[in-house]
Amino acid sequence: MREKLSLFALLLLAGCASPATPHFFNGHYYMMDGSSCARYSAIENEIVKCMDKDGKETGFRLPMTDQELMMYQANQQMQAQQIQNLSAQLQQTNYQLQQSNQNFYRNNTNYINSIGSQNYQNPYYNQNNHVNCISTGFYTSCR
User: Fold this and answer.
1) In 3D, which of 17, 24, 39 has the Cα closest to residue 69?
2) Distance separating alpha carbons of residues 14 and 8, to the nearest angstrom
3) What is the pLDDT of residue 103?
4) DSSP states of the chain as a string?
């Protein structure tokens, strides 16, 4: 369970970065991300030059093959299914915790009520005992 939660957290953190995704440009799909390929331009028939947001050249991209594009889509679907499975597991765990808490509360409430309904007698208290105290100024003596 801990491993699955770690995977879920990793997927969430990975979502904060700017992942490379296919972009359709000039009749082809190219794998580009937001940081190193914020700007791009065609330099030849199928080659794209990537630049960062400041216009600094960061590299070149070739178009994705049909197989690469299908693999990307399959991976996206698999990740979406994993996230959906993790979400369902988290909901199930949450439900089980709620049930456990309700059972614990119900059992303890019954226990506390059962103690309160009994005639509890303090073993150190005897109704037949009398205590007499004598005070003389600063000192008090009780018997």
Assistant:
1) 24
2) 10
3) 84
4) -HHHHHHHHHHHHHTTS---EEEEETTEEEEE-TTTTSEEEE-SSS-EEEE-TT--EEEEEPPPPHHHHHHHHHHHHHHHHHHHHHHHHHHHHHHHHHHHHHHHHHHHHHHHHHHHHS----TT--TT----EEEETTEEEE-
**Is residue 54 over pLDDT 80?**
yes
Q: How far apart are CA 30 and CA 32, in angstroms?
A: 6
Q: Could you tell me the two tokens for 112?
A: 């506390």
CA distance 86 to 92: 10
């959906």: which residue's tokens? Answer: 84
Write the DSSP assignment of 83-114 as a string of letters.
HHHHHHHHHHHHHHHHHHHHHHHHHHHHHHHH
Confidence of residue 133 (pLDDT cuts 50, 70, 90): confident
